[in-house]
Design goal:
This protein has about 450 residues and is an alpha+beta fold. It has 12 helices and 20 strands. Strands 2-1-12-11-10-9-8-7 form an 8-stranded antiparallel beta sheet, sandwiched between helices.
């Protein structure tokens, strides 16, 4: 059997190279740097350039625009995990006087705070941050254009507020908190506030002629938490691995899973937003990550949990090359050409006989389900026919379980026993699951017809 960590097949590498070369040519990008990570290591990287000099590689810096927001979200979640804030806190509690203080931290993270998409003119991405020295200059006279919590509306100023929240609670600059709490622990030494050579220069390409003009690279000031950072394909792959698995030096696996949980549904199909992460559902997989752009640069970072693959695409052009789409396509090329080899099935190392006795067929009314025992005393409840509500459940200290996903996420599952200790039914958020459909003698809500099951003949 081949090793799942072997090198990519020549045909896969050829497909990746072809996609990158086509993207750079058709997108008319001065340069493009890409990399793909599979099962814990960089599986492939490449670069193309139409300029004189060395082609970019996975260590070449590009500006990553709104991927910066994901870093800011990690800083905010760290504050929550340390008990310094709560996601349901109104901003006003920690950052008074903004005019948007009624919005909660959670709403700001998920772009449902109702704030405007951009700052007042002039265009903040192409002008120095010194033009907006105060939060009032970023938010303008009418910070909220929608009621907080009513809809998804992407907001760059919202992440300025989150960066300012980090500074207010930490007592240090956003840049210092970022370096100390994320970049250094994760070894992201090529992710910086200002560019550090080797880096790509930002260009705009004329839409009707093959000529270019240099784009300014401004210090965004207060808007930095929304889009300031420079990074490399290699660093962003390491960041993607952290976002998939967690790292207790920065955020736990549970907290990064929370980032990947939809917080607001966007108004286009197949797209959602978590806490600082975009979520895209395709026919084959769910992608987590973020797109980014600033004048002169476009960027895309995606990872797939089910495939254990991440991909990054970075280009130095204001428009033309859809970097986020290219990153998603590179991920799909590898995942589809070389599907992930599953780990061997293994028996559980130990088993609780009482839990084992709970497994098997259960009925909610006339709906039939199976209950399976999983690792770590977990349970999985699934409809027998393959359609319907189901979930995985994790054990709690009080002897109950809590749902992890879908309809039953956060819902309690408990075993209800009779006086003699035998199991009467499972209670799942008030739904009674019995061994037989509407089992006689079981505590079924609404009671049972004394006549029992019968035909309808004359």
């Amino acid at each position: 059997m081949t090793s799942p960590r072997e090198e990519l097949l020549p045909s896969t590498r050829r497909s990746l190279l072809h996609r990158v070369a086509t993207a750079q040519r058709e997108g008319r990008a001065p340069s493009l740097a890409v990399a793909v990570r599979r099962e814990g290591r960089v599986a492939w990287s490449g670069g193309r350039t139409g300029l004189e000099g060395q082609a970019p590689d996975a260590d070449t810096q590009y500006r990553i625009g709104s991927i910066t927001k994901t870093f800011t979200a990690v800083l905010v979640l760290r504050l929550r995990d340390e008990g310094l804030i709560d996601l349901d806190d109104q901003l006003e509690k920690h950052l008074p006087g903004t005019g948007a203080g009624g919005a909660t931290v959670f709403q700001l993270l998920g772009h449902s705070a109702g704030l405007g998409a951009e700052t007042p003119a002039p265009w903040w991405e192409r002008t120095p941050g010194s033009l907006r020295p105060e939060l009032a200059d970023v938010l303008g006279e009418r910070p909220q254009i929608h009621p907080a919590g009513h809809r998804f509306h992407y907001s760059n100023p919202g992440y300025t507020l989150l960066g300012s929240l980090v500074e207010a609670v930490r007592g240090v600059s956003w840049e210092e908190a970022l370096r100390r709490e994320i970049l250094e622990p994760l070894g992201l030494h090529r992710t910086t506030y200002e560019p550090v050579a080797p880096y790509a220069e930002g260009w705009a390409v004329h839409p009707w002629a093959d000529v270019v003009v240099s784009e300014p690279a401004e210090d965004l000031g207060l808007m930095a938490p929304a889009g300031q950072l420079w990074s490399t394909a290699a660093d962003l792959l390491r960041f993607a691995a952290f976002l998939a698995e967690g790292d207790d030096r920065v955020l736990s696996a549970a907290s990064v899973r929370e980032m990947r949980t939809p917080a607001a549904a966007a108004e286009t199909g197949g797209y959602g937003y978590g806490l600082g992460l975009q979520i895209v559902k395709t026919d084959s997989r769910v992608l987590f990550g973020h797109a980014g752009s600033l004048p002169g640069f476009v960027a895309g970072l995606w990872f797939s949990e089910q495939d254990d693959i991440a991909a990054v695409a970075l280009a130095n052009a204001t428009s033309g090359l859809p970097a986020a789409t290219v990153a998603a396509e590179l991920l799909a090329i590898v995942a589809d050409a070389e599907p992930r080899i599953p780990e061997p099935w293994r028996p559980l190392p130990e088993v609780d006989q009482e839990l084992l006795a709970l497994t098997g067929i259960w009925h909610w009314g006339t709906h039939t389900f199976t209950l399976r025992l999983t690792g770590g005393r977990g349970l999985a409840l699934r409809p027998l026919g393959g359609t319907g509500r189901g979930a995985a459940f994790v054990p709690q200290a009080d002897g109950t379980w809590t749902g992890l996903d879908d309809y039953y996420a956060g819902e309690p599952l408990r075993v209800v026993r009779r006086v003699d200790g035998s199991v009467d039914h499972l209670d799942l958020g008030s739904f009674a699951f019995t061994r037989e459909p509407y089992e006689a003698g079981a505590d079924v809500p609404g009671g049972l017809d004394p006549a029992g099951w019968r035909g309808l003949g004359g």
